[in-house]
Give the backbone structure.
Amino acid sequence: MAAIQGQNIEGGDRAQRALIERLISASHPRASHYLTYLLNVYVRQVRDCFSGDKERKALEGAFFCAQAEDLRLTFRAWIARAADKADAVESQSGIRLRAQLIAMLGACPTAYDAAAVLDCVEREAPTVLRLEKAMLMAALGRTHEAAEFLVTACQDYAEAELLLLRPLAPESLAQLAHVRGARRSRGTQPKAEGVRRLLGLYMAHEDDEMAARLVADVLQRYSECLCDDAGDVLASIPEHWPYAIAEPLVSRQLARLAHREKSSSIERGLRQSLAMAEQLRTVDEHRGFGPIVLDYSQACAKCHKLLGSSAFVLVPESREIRHVSCG
């Protein structure tokens, strides 16, 4: 550790990073410890590259422009492509460093201390490395907190959707927690709870136009998950939003009600057919008994009350006469 600190004093983070990378590549016994330290070095270097608001806002602005054309674009995917284009441009070394940091965080979540790296991010670059903070929270199993941070602070909506609605996808940040040993969810379909949570985050968005666009996209693709909560979801949609936003959910509910009504109608028809068949069978069984003559003293063989003018039946096996209700 003294040698590493010495490198830090003499050559700064660049020399320190090179030394730690050599130790890790040589499979040093304390490689995990050194990788954590290396990630902290990367955090400080990326912070220095984007220390000014101008550089940070320029990077975020470029991503938001690309995101406006494709809501399913994640910052991770975008910066990886941007880093490939920036390979030959020395002035854009910060983009390459940040892409490397993001790739390292996602590639080996069990090989470093996520809590220590998160502490470094929050201490050294809380406003610069927002996505990295969300990744580390997800790796630590803080899924809901990470999703909210992705929507509100990072505005990385595609990443939040992957985290909440597609946790089993290989590219989802939820896989970081799974790799670290967190409990894996069952099933491949998005759960209604996750869809409702994501809709709630989107509806609270400060940009009403973007909120409407995001909610419309979710309802278009995941309305089947909200069948049991359709009323509450529709009631929460602002009245001034276009009907087209709620149309997928409304159409699905109408189709569901129509199917339910059709099923009920078929069920009623089947019951009536069975009842009629039973009556015809009874009539056929009674044809061979001839006329039945009763007087007013005739009582039901089951309840022993006088039949009077009540409807009655003849039991073929015992030839007993009973009220219809006594069967």
About this structure: The radius of gyration is 35 Å. The first helix runs from residue 2 to 25.
